[in-house]
Design goal:
By secondary structure, the chain is of the alpha/beta class. The chain is built from seven helices and nine strands. Homodimer.
């Protein structure tokens, strides 16, 4: 099964963009996934190819019309999940990325202007997704992020099957810090435990660093991680040394 991405956008020339290079680009060329960027204006009926109108109730900006978007969505509806990239959506999580990467692909709506007519989102069961608490000019950049996160998980895309297992968010924690040669650089040395050859000690050190960094840098992730551990069948968590 090939992962198929259909992108409904006002700027199809933005694709594949970065997705045409590196791992994603190689996988695209090898047919491990496919990408089709579709111009929403192709589904208009007037000579000006109008896709938007003024917001009901007044206000600044323009809103993408439900009737135009529905024609575009319906032309590509085939059972794949339908997404709209919008700051009003639920935050994108690695767990959702894994689910999506395991499926047939997605149809993705890229917003512009003030966003979508809400009726389209309700009528077509669109899953609204946000990549962060900030505003972009449109949904295209967010779509690139979503697809890059998915494509790297497809079979045969990453060099080693275990490459992504210990990365940030896969276990609910940030990833531990990395080091490489030279052993000493500007008076800073690689931690001794990583040069010890003791794999058990190295694994314990990496786990501890992941927990410390997550707790300090992302207390929101740490709270979710701790809640999951406490609520797991294995019982309460074991405290780390600096908590004892």
């Amino acid at each position: 099964m090939t992962f198929r991405a259909t992108i409904l956008t006002l700027y199809p020339e933005m694709f594949p963009g970065p997705l045409g290079t590196s791992l994603a680009g190689r996988a695209l060329a090898e047919g491990k996934w496919s990408l089709d960027a579709v111009n929403i204006r192709d589904f208009t009926t007037d000579r000006h190819r109008t896709v938007d109108d003024t917001p009901a109730g007044g206000g600044a900006g323009m809103v993408l019309r439900a009737d135009i978007l529905a024609r575009a969505v319906d032309a590509y509806a085939d059972g794949r999940p339908l997404f709209a990239m919008t700051p009003r959506g639920a935050p994108l999580r690695q767990a959702r990325v894994r689910e999506l990467a395991a499926g047939p692909g997605a149809v993705i709506l890229c917003g512009r202007f003030e966003g979508f007519d809400e009726r389209l989102l309700e009528a077509r069961g669109v899953e609204q997704v946000s990549i962060g608490d900030y505003i972009l000019s449109g949904g295209e950049m967010a779509t690139l992020v979503l697809l890059d996160a998915c494509v790297r998980l497809l079979p045969g895309v990453m060099g080693a099957a275990s490459s992504g297992v210990e990365e940030s968010f896969e276990s609910g924690l940030l990833e531990y810090p990395h080091y490489t040669r030279p052993v000493e650089w500007e008076g800073r040395t690689i931690p001794e435990v990583l040069r010890s050859g003791d794999h058990a000690k190295i694994a314990a050190w990496r786990q501890r660093q992941a927990e410390i960094d997550t707790r300090l840098r992302r207390p929101d992730l740490w709270e979710r991680h701790e809640g999951a551990r406490v609520g797991s069948p294995s019982g309460a968590r074991q405290r780390t040394e600096d908590e004892q």
